[in-house]
Structure formats: C-alpha cells, structure tokens
Amino acid sequence: MKLLEEKTVLITGASRGIGRGMALKFAEAGAQVAFTYRSSAEKAKALEEELSSFGKKCKGYQSDAGEYKAAEELINNVVEEFGTIDVLVNNAGITRDGLLMRMSEEDWNEVIDTNLKSVFNTTKAIQRTLLKQRSGSIINLTSIVGIKGNAGQTNYAASKAGIIGFTKSVALELGSRNIRCNAIAPGFIETEMTAELDENTVKEWAAAIPLKRAGTIDDVANLALFLGSDLSTYVTGQVIQVDGGMLT
Ligand code: NAP
Description:
By secondary structure, this protein is α/β, with parallel strands linked by helices.
C-alpha cells in the first residue's frame, strides 16, 4: 500500500515551485490532490493534467490565500468534491523585499496577508472538518529567515516567524484530537522565488551551506510527504529545517 493511499491533500499555491513539487510527490504516493493558485491558470491546468496521470481525483482552484472568505469557500468546495481533507499544506507565499527604510505599507500588508494571514484563514476554515474526523496533519511552510531574520526582508521574516508561533499554538490546541501541526523551514531552495535574488545574496547564501549546494524542490517535498503520512504520527509542534545545515 502506498504512503498516502485513500488520503486527500490540499496544498495552497501549487501552480509553481515547492507547492507543485509537493502536489506531484503526494499524488505519486497515492493521494487525491486539491491545490490552489492565484493567477497562473495555465500552469495550474498543466499540473492538473500531470496529476491526473496518477489515476486519482485532482483539481486546481483559483483562490486568493490572503482572503478569509475565499478560504472558507475553498474548504467547503474541496470537502464537498473530495469527501474530506486529511492533509493541509499551507505553502502559498511571496516576497516583496527591501530595506525597512524604503518598505511601503502595501509591501508589508501584502506579504503578511499572503504568507501569514493565509495560514490562519485555511487552518480556521478546516478546523471543524478535522475535529469531526479526529485526525489530520497541517503542514506550514515557514523559512529559516523566520528563525534568524534577514536584512531586506523584515516583512517576510515577520510573516515566517509568525507562522512558527501559530504552528506551535495549533499543535497545542488540537493535539488531543489527533490533529498534528508542523512547520517546514527551508533554507535556500532553487525556485522562481529565489531566482529573484541578486547574485551577491545568492553567493553569500551558497557559501554558508555546509552541504555545499542549494536545496531542491524534492528535498522539501520529501519532508512534506513524511509529515503528511502516518510515518510521523508522533510528531507535532515542530519546526523542521531543510537547509543543508545552513542554520545550525
Ligand atoms: P514560488 O515558486 O514563487 O511559488 C509560489 C506559489 O504560491 C505559486 O504557486 C503562486 O501562485 C502561489 N501564490 C502566491 N500568492 C498567492 C495567493 N495570494 N494566493 C494563492 N496562491 C498564491 O515560491 P516557492 O519558492 O515555491 O515557495 C513556496 C513556499 O516555500 C513559500 O511559502 C515560501 O515562502 C517558502 N520558502 C521558499 C524558499 C525557497 O528558497 N524557495 C525558502 C524558504 C521558504 P501563482 O503562480 O498563481 O502566483
């Protein structure tokens, strides 16, 4: 039997990058996969087609992670169409980098809403479903930047640090109902998000990695698979780094 046979997974922000990699990994492990995107409709369609080759139900939903009402609608639709949700992966995220001196209120708000409020939105909206079935695994994508901070990323670091506090609190609130909540803290992973960084920052980051390479999408997806599956039934409230030893 495959690791996620008969499980349904919902991943936010999976049209590209780490989210997309996790969607494929979960489908390969036997799960039904629902996912969201904000604007990449064509990429979402292409992913739906790829996922359907695994022979399980799959569907992409256009849904803005920062909107509470949209999250409620999303959870209702997925539960109605898939039957339930066993694993929620809060992955959608953006950067709007710049020194605090020059950061606009809009850049602050957009990052906090998309990266942090989004996690509140879906987690709150899914709670009743998970409580009813007395099981569930919630996986939140934070970052090592949320642990150590980063110049030029006050908004992003604050959103990711907030996710850590939220994750630990949800683990404490819902543990007695067999609902687990953990966070993945990637270091430097090659995706479109990191492709935006300037060359010097990339060199600095790469030099600081003991394993001497950037992380791959698969490195992160493998940990998500572990946290979403019954291999991790005694793991909750944890922040697990996938960073090649960068922050030790
Ligand atoms: P990415 O390649 O930029 O992809 C971001 C995904 O999020 C896209 O599918 C995008 O959808 C979606 N998204 C953005 N805003 C959204 C919104 N408002 N509503 C719904 N979906 C939205 O990013 P990534 O590198 O894969 O990062 C994924 C997660 O890992 C993020 O939370 C990021 O902070 C975290 N992380 C990444 C790294 C890294 O090195 N890459 C390191 C640490 C943490 P559209 O295509 O429709 O815009």
